[in-house]
Every structure is written in C-alpha cells, then in structure tokens.
Amino acid sequence: MRRPIIAGNWKMFKTRGETSAFFQGLIPQIQAVTHCDIVVAPPFTALSTAVDEAARTAVKISAQDVYWEKEGAFTGQVSVKMLREVGCTYTIIGHSERRQYFGETDETVHKKTVAAVGGGLKAIVCVGELLAERDAGQAVDVVRRQVCNGLAGLTGPDLSNIIVAYEPVWAIGTGRTATPEIAAEMHAAIRKTFAEIYNGAAADALRILYGGSVKPDNISALMKKEDIDGALVGGASLDPASFAAIIKY
Ligand code: PEP
User: Fold this and answer.
1) Which residues make beta-bridge pairs with 39?
2) Catalytic residues
3) Phi, psi of 2 (to 5 degrees)
4) Pocket of ligand 1, candidates 126, 232, 243: which has the most ligand atoms within 8 Å of its Cβ, to mutate?
5) Where are the alpha helices (DSSP H) in 78-179?
C-alpha cells in the first residue's frame, strides 16, 4: 500500500562535475524502475546540477537541510523558497550528524519540518538513538521523544509530505547495520507513536525508511519487513552501481 522510497544522502561529497558523472552512470541503470520513488540529496552547491541531470527521469532531488525562516540575516542558511526555486522537491531534516555536530534539536527539527512542508517540500525527518542509549534500554523512549517533539502539531495535508527515517546512530557509516528485526521493531514503535499523536490512518500511511550501513547485500532482507518502507542510504549511494543495486533490491 505504501510506495517504497530509496533515498541517497551524499553528505559532504561530490563536486558539480562528480555529480554529473554520477547521474550519467546511474540513469541508464534505473530507467526501467517503477516500483519505488528515488531521491538523491547532494550538497547545496551541486543541487542545480543534480536537478538538470535528473530532468526527465524519475529521480527527485533533495536538500540535506533547510532553515525555517523565509529570509533575513541568517548567514549560511538556505530557505525553503530557495530550495524550491532550484528544483528541489525534498529536504532531509534532523540528520544525526546535524544533531551531533551542529546543534540540531527536536525543537529546530520541528521548526524546519513545519517550514518545509508548509512551503511545499517533502521532509525526510531523521530520528535514531545513540549506542549508549540502546545499551541502556532507552532506544524506544529516545525515538518516541524525537517523533513527538519533532513532528507533533502538523495538519492533515502536511502529514502526507512527511517521511520518517529511522537511523540508529551506531549504524551510520559504521558498517554495522541494524538487523531487520531491530529495525522493524523500531519502525513499528514509530508507527504506534504516530497513531497516538495523530490517528491510525495517518500512521498506516506514514512511510518510514531505515538508514544505517544499507548496502546492496542487506537491502532486500530489510525491505521484506512490513513496516520498512525504504532506505536512506549514505556511503553506498555515492557509487552509481551500488545505489542502482539498492534501488533494484
Ligand atoms: C546516512 O548518512 O544517513 C547513512 C545512513 O549513512 P550510511 O549508509 O553510510 O551508514
């Protein structure tokens, strides 16, 4: 019922030239794909190149972050309108690297999410616990808090433009993927939380991606789980062949 999404987060990788080369490698490999939505999130500087390269294909382009104000004296920030003008249709919000290194909080995630969906972008909102939190048995509580504080108070139409990415921090860039069972358990907890703060229909419709060392050889086991609706892929999205293999799981 829920359409799968495979999204690639390039983080701080790829110049414009490297972006063009990536799409020229990727597009011929995924032309026949119709079973999922495909999203690529390059750095801000390569967004317009990516939009041009992905024109007339099924690939949608995402930013990796956005600011909640419309414009103003906010050095280094980029608004929803600016992203839409360049051709972005998605943005990632609240990635754990932004939470860990750049002071992102549940409150800023909430403000960015409201601004993004209010301005017509789809938001891929990231949540996930630290290793110490999982070891202390707090994983579900942490993720519940992130979902409640980051995503409460949205209106009905906005909800259809929210995608949640569950990314346990201990699995990101470490090669240590969560087992499909661990991931599915958290996805079910996120869906339950959504049912509590909204309703059953919103929870059933919510697309929840798993992220954390997704590779061509582990994607199909993850995608077999009912509550896993796709993947947010970091390292393995940088290479056209491995990203295409994940898309064609
Ligand atoms: C990410 O950056 O969102 C991510 C999941 O990275 P990786 O796939 O490299 O673990």
Assistant:
1) 7, 60
2) 95, 167
3) -85, 130
4) 232
5) 80-86, 96-101, 106-118, 131-135, 139-151, 156-159
Rounded to the nearest integer, the mean pLDDT of the chain is 97
Distances (CA, A) of 123 to 110, 135, 150, 211: 11, 29, 12, 15
Average pLDDT, integer, range 142-168: 95
Q: Is the CB of 214 under 6 A from ligand 1?
A: yes
The ligand 1 atom at the shortest distance from the C-alpha of residue 215 is 8
> Ligand 1, closest atom to CA 95?
3
3-state helix vs strand vs coil in the chain, percent to 5: 45, 15, 35
Q: Is the CB of 91 under 6 A from ligand 1?
A: no
Mean pLDDT within 9-23: 98
For the beta carbon of residue 43, count every other beta carbon within 10 angstroms: 18
